[in-house]
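Extended Data, panel c. Modelled sequence:
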Amino acid sequence: MKLSEVEHVLRAAAEVTQEKEFICVGSQAILGQYPDAPRELRVSMELDLYPKAHPEKSELIDGALGELSPFHATFHYYAHGVGPTTAVLPSGWQNRLVKFTSPNTNGAVGWCLEVHDLAVSKLVAGRDKDKEFVSALLRHELASRNTLRQRIDLIEHLDTRSKVQSTFQVLVNRLSTTDTPQQKPGRGIKPW
């Protein structure tokens, strides 16, 4: 996605739900903190979000702006109405949300996950595309390994925390063996 597309989805979600503030999770939440994020971090064509005050209205978002909707067919990107339990996040994530708004959102506000909280949610999900996303964050130095370790330690569920710690260590080890100082980001062997 591009920033202009995020702005459009926020405007449309506000119109559909009659809400003004949204929690943005999923990969495209990166644009709240890094509007010029590298292309490999912006490949998804969906913005996962839910109304902050009334998460139950996310069904309206899915119906009007979701995948295979006329909105999707017209613009080739879409909104995915999710809920507060969609992403597993480290304790305190609500206090670190990044506020995104612009004149092009018509007053709608996207509260986007901070990059390290976003990375933790991706590591918890654990799909190959999620691991590649976190690897790209680290390669482009948009996330700190130390801060990410600290956030992983804030995962409340012990089994999940342990699994994510292991996944993260494997990811770091693979990055260390596949990236050399001469390589450009995104080149060489994929870590997953």
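Strands lie at 21-25, 46-51, 78-81, 98-100, 109-112. This feature is highlighted in the accompanying rendering.
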